[in-house]
């Protein structure tokens, strides 16, 4: 296993002449992207959202010393016998404190209070004995096992101390945080607003799912793939349908889309006779960046701010639209909804096959990452054409092959961007569960 050997296979000159590097495009997009304001939501609605305030504890948790075991609260002085089996101590049981009740008595010399897990420790007691280490009647308890002083007591504030910042602004709320918000009696919290993202597909060849469509039409799938990706990134998608290939139709639909925070178009950004995206962006007053990006798939891409809103013109090829969304739109949505980091988790993995390319573009291969004997391994999903959407269906990661790299060989270490949070499977499990290479449907 070794890192991709750069020396032998990297060309001396930057071969991306005329092409914009993805890193530069990402910088421009993120600089133009605002973080949205705050809104107040209930605990469960906060799940997955980014916290817009520091959560400071207004009381200790636990609020009082309490028992970690079902048993007897005692004074340690009373039970520190020399030989517990031969000389067990007998204490008088003066009260029974179930969870949810406060003790009313204090434990004096020779006394014990029966106590349940979570119940407050009575005055006078400093140690709890587990019920199974005793013999007991309703009125008395015989102690056969000495315990160190303080055993089985959970001290007040061991979890949370009043005045401490417990969950910091900028945290994405997970289930543990939701539980903590409840402990701290925060029924409602401030989170960052989610951007509304208008999605528009362009092209006379397209028909929507609910239309009758003839043989020359293809189904508008990009709107759904992009809408799902928006949702996954924490945005709120709404579909504007299809704009026909005229500047007027495009302009009208785009104007409607500008009521949202972000407008994402797909198609019509390349060199075709009916590719009007660029012109209409300009007409609507966009401060425009039209890029030929140094990536594959996803070379042609328009980005601009129109009337203060972010507008992206993604390439129409289905895989290209998804990959460019991943690299440029997703980070913008994450920034808008309050995230502080915008990338997918990265893993270094050993590639299982060879791949070669020119050194003018960074490639994002759709990959399957598995874990064998503690080592991450990755292979491509197969054919990588930008119209082959099954490459996204099969993928759980994108294999990132840098611009400068001309060739990777089996055994090389590559960086992959994780698309799925699923537990890692072995190759055999993956093949079995996805049906790839087996008969499925
Ligand atoms: N002369 C050139 N032609 C092309 C170039 C180029 O540089 N010079 N670039 C190629 C590359 S790379 C890409 S990517 C595409 C991008 O083109 P457009 O953004 O203009 O996309 P369209 O031409 O409208 O469509 C391309 C392809 O994708 C299908 N498509 C489009 N929209 C959808 C949708 N909503 N759902 C499903 N499929 C969609 C469309 O039918 C085409 O097959 O341009 C190359 N050409
Ligand atoms: O950039 Mo296109 O996306 O190569 O097919």
UniProtKB/TrEMBL annotation:
Q: What SUPFAM superfamilies does its record include?
A: MoeA C-terminal domain-like, MoeA N-terminal region -like, Molybdenum cofactor biosynthesis proteins
Give the matching Gene3D superfamilies.
MoaB/Mog-like domain, MoeA, C-terminal, domain IV, Molybdopterin biosynthesis moea protein, domain 2, Molybdopterin biosynthesis moea protein, domain 3
Q: Which Enzyme Commission number(s) are on file for it? A: 2.10.1.1
Q: Which GO terms describe its cellular component?
A: cytosol
Sorted UniProt keywords: Magnesium, Metal-binding, Molybdenum, Molybdenum cofactor biosynthesis, Transferase
- The species is Nitrospira lenta
Q: Sorted alphabetically, which InterPro entries does this protein's record hold?
A: MoaB/Mog-like_dom_sf, MoaB/Mog_dom, MoeA-like, MoeA_C_domain_IV, MoeA_C_domain_IV_sf, MoeA_linker/N, MoeA_linker/N_sf
GO function term, MF aspect, one: molybdopterin molybdotransferase activity
Q: What class of enzyme is it?
A: transferase
Q: Does the keyword Transferase apply?
A: yes
Q: What is this protein called?
A: Molybdopterin molybdenumtransferase
Boundaries of every MoaB/Mog domain copy: 198-335
Q: What is the lineage of its organism?
A: Bacteria, Pseudomonadati, Nitrospirota, Nitrospiria, Nitrospirales
Q: In which pathway does it act?
A: Cofactor biosynthesis; molybdopterin biosynthesis
One Pfam entry for this protein is MoeA_C
């Amino acid at each position: 296993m070794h890192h991709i050997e750069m020396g032998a296979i990297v060309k001396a000159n930057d071969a991306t002449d005329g092409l914009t590097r993805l890193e530069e495009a990402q910088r421009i997009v993120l600089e133009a992207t605002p973080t949205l304001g705050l809104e107040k939501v209930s605990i469960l609605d906060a799940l997955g959202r980014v916290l817009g305030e520091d959560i400071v504890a207004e009381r200790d948790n636990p609020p009082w010393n309490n028992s970690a075991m079902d048993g007897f609260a005692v004074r340690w002085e009373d039970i520190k016998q020399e030989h517990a089996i031969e000389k067990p101590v007998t204490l008088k049981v003066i009260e029974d404190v179930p969870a949810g009740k406060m003790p009313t008595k204090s434990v004096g010399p020779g006394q014990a209070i029966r106590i349940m897990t979570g119940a407050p420790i009575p005055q006078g007691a400093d140690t709890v004995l587990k019920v199974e280490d005793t013999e007991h009647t309703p009125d008395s308890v015989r102690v056969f096992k000495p315990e160190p002083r303080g055993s089985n007591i959970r001290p007040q504030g061991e979890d949370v101390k009043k005045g401490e910042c417990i969950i910091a602004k900028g945290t994405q709320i997970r289930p543990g945080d939701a539980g903590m918000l409840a402990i701290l009696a925060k029924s409602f919290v401030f989170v960052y607003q989610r951007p509304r993202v208008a999605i528009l597909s362009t092209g006379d060849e397209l028909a929507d799912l609910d239309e009758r469509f003839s043989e020359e039409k293809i189904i508008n799938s990009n709107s759904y793939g992009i809408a799902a990706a928006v949702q996954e990134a924490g945005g709120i998608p709404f579909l504007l349908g299809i704009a026909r290939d005229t500047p007027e139709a495009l302009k009208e639909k785009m104007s409607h889309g500008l009521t949202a925070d972000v407008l994402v178009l797909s198609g019509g950004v390349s060199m075709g006779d009916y590719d009007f995206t660029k012109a209409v962006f300009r007409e609507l007053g966009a401060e425009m960046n039209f890029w030929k990006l140094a990536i594959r798939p996803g070379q042609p891409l328009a980005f601009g701010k129109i009337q203060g809103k972010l507008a992206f013109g993604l390439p129409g090829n289905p895989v290209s639209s998804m990959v460019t969304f991943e690299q440029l739109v997703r980070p913008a949505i994450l920034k808008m909804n309050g995230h502080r980091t915008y990338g997918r988790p990265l893993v270094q993995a050993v590639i299982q096959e060879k791949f070669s390319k020119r050194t003018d573009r960074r490639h994002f291969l759709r990959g399957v990452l598995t874990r064998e004997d503690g080592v991450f391994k990755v292979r491509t999903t197969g054919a990588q054409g930008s119209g082959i959407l099954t490459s996204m269906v099969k993928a759980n990661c994108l294999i990132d092959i840098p611009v400068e790299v001309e060739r990777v060989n089996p055994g090389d270490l590559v960086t992959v961007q994780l698309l799925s949070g699923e537990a890692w499977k072995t190759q055999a499990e993956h093949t079995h569960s996805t049906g790839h290479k087996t008969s499925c449907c």
